[in-house]
Design goal:
Blueprint lengths: L1 H44 L5 H22 L5 H19 L3 H21 L4 H4 L1
Helix pairs in contact: 1-2, 1-4, 2-3, 3-4
Length: 129
């Protein structure tokens, strides 16, 4: 009986530790990407933007996303990650065609989807039940 109890406690501790680790990484990734997207949005709304600089900034954000995507894919639904990927592709295409109002809208959607992923995978009572 004691042996089974110890095994159960070890399993519960491992689950909590794993959840904290993945939750912290998700929060860090979402914060970093959201800040980059928010900075890009501010650049676009200043109206004195250089197309090349904006595209380079978006490419840097996209490269950061690619690095984060590999680790996030281990424990987050692929459909959620595909939503972010789709938004990034839309932003890049709008920036290439200099449709900045649409790009701004897509930037806002991307930040929302990232925040949704963070909230969805956060360990709280609402998500447990």
């Amino acid at each position: 009986m004691l042996k089974e109890t110890i095994i159960c406690i070890v399993i519960i501790i491992a689950i909590i530790f794993g959840d904290r680790t993945t939750g912290n990484y998700t929060t860090e990734a979402v914060l970093e990407l959201s800040n980059g997207l928010t900075d890009l949005r501010e650049e676009i709304t200043q109206n004195n933007t250089e197309k090349q600089a904006i595209q380079e900034q978006m490419e840097a954000i996209y490269q950061n996303w690619q690095q984060k995507h590999d680790k996030l894919a281990y424990y987050i639904e692929h459909d959620e990650l595909e939503k972010v990927e789709t938004e990034f592709v839309a932003i890049k295409s709008y920036l290439e065609t200099e449709e900045y109002e649409e790009a701004t809208s897509e930037l806002d959607k991307s930040v929302f989807v990232l925040k949704h992923i963070e909230d969805k995978y956060d360990f709280n009572l609402q998500n447990v039940f």
